[in-house]
Q: What sequence folds into this?
């Protein structure tokens, strides 16, 4: 009997008695280790003549494949066995009672951001964010507000360095710049986020929230802006009709610029949106100034569009009858429990936003 055949029989005999992964590892080393029974056979090859070598190599390779396959399959068998044993011990008892309902609440500002995102995503806007720490260039200069422009004073800026090169963004408008610098038109985005101004009273907080909107494409005009805002306000306040008026205004980054008021009346001390003859200012908007497009390398001859900026906290106060802005940021648990929303009720347009 050839030596190779003997090695095979030897392997088969030992293999039959293997009962654990550890034993199998030992057997593997015995045959394939550095001085293993099969490994040493390969070393012999050099001393054979061409003819012998061919036959020997063929037999030896067959043996090697045979033994390797047996060992690998056996390893897999052991591993499956171990996993199955483990799974048996990890059964989940589906009859366990659920944990009592969590008391966490969604803050009205987060709720309103979710609502707004849902409304605008229905008409093709995507949600983009930008950093709170901004460069003076993105926050002002690129937005057509040069150094000596009076609009800079109105913003009561928190500067972060002596040279006034970095600041806490005073509005979400710099994200217009970031977006247009990065991509190619068309752009159709909304930007919710935190903004900062050195100002604090019942209706102003040093940190507050804004929503920026930007739509740049070919042939966009004021009519599109009006239609878009009209849709948004109706959806947001969940009313069929609203009264809206555009008042001429000025922002350095839009031309023409407007402020938008919505009509309301007071009923039993509460605000009813969409009726009555009182007016409430809720946002600023306009057609993006050609200088802003130029600064961001957008071809102002081909593309134009509108932008708007809304105070989110103000919208939340109006919709949910909250009358002091400061309470938003006092982290009073009782307040949050009263005004907060159920975390499992995610706002969607078709299910209703605020139910
Ligand atoms: N950034 C302005 C502010 O904070 C709001 C604003 C007005 C944004 C008009 C706009 C806009 O995009 O077109 O007062």
A:
């Amino acid at each position: 009997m050839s030596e190779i055949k003997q090695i095979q029989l030897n392997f088969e005999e030992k293999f039959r008695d293997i009962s654990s992964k550890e034993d199998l590892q030992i057997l593997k080393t015995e045959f394939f280790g550095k001085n293993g029974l099969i490994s040493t056979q390969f070393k012999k090859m050099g001393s054979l003549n061409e003819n012998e070598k061919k036959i020997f190599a063929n037999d030896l390779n067959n043996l090697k494949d045979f033994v390797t396959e047996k060992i690998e399959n056996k390893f897999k068998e052991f591993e499956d066995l171990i996993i199955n044993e483990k799974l048996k011990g990890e059964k989940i008892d589906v009859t366990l009672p659920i944990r009592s309902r969590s008391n966490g609440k969604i803050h009205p500002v987060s709720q309103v951001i979710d609502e707004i995102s849902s409304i605008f995503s229905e008409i093709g806007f995507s949600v983009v964010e930008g950093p709170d720490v901004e460069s003076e260039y993105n926050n002002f200069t690129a937005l057509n507000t040069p150094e000596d422009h009076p609009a800079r004073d109105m913003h009561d800026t928190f500067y972060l360095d002596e040279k006034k090169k970095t600041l806490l963004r005073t509005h979400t408008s710099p994200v217009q710049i970031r977006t247009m610098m990065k991509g190619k038109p068309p752009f159709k985005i909304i930007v919710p986020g935190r903004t900062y101004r050195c100002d604090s009273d019942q209706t102003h907080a040093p940190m507050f929230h804004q929503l920026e909107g930007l739509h740049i494409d070919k042939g966009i005009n004021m009519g599109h802006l009006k239609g878009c805002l009209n849709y948004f306000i109706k959806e947001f306040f969940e009313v069929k009709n609203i009264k809206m008026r555009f008042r001429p205004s000025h922002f350095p980054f839009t031309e023409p610029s407007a402020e938008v008021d919505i009509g309301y009346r007071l009923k039993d001390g509460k605000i009813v949106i969409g009726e009555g003859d009182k007016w409430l200012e809720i946002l600023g908007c306009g057609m993006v100034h050609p200088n802003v497009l130029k600064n961001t390398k957008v071809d102002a001859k081909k593309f134009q569009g509108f932008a708007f900026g809304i105070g989110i906290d103000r919208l939340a106060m109006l919709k949910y009858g909250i009358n002091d802005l400061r309470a938003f940021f006092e982290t009073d648990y009782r307040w949050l429990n009263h005004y907060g929303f159920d975390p499992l009720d995610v706002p969607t347009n078709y299910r209703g936003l605020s139910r």
The chain has a mean pLDDT of 91. The pocket of 3,4-dihydroxyphenylalanine is lined by residues 171, 173, 212, 251, 254, 284-286, 307-309 (CB under 6 Å). Residues 108-339 form a domain with the BirA Bifunctional Protein; domain 2 fold (CATH 3.30.930.10). Strands lie at 126-127, 133-135, 166-168, 187-196, 207-217, 244-251, 254-267, 270-273, 278-288, 304-311.
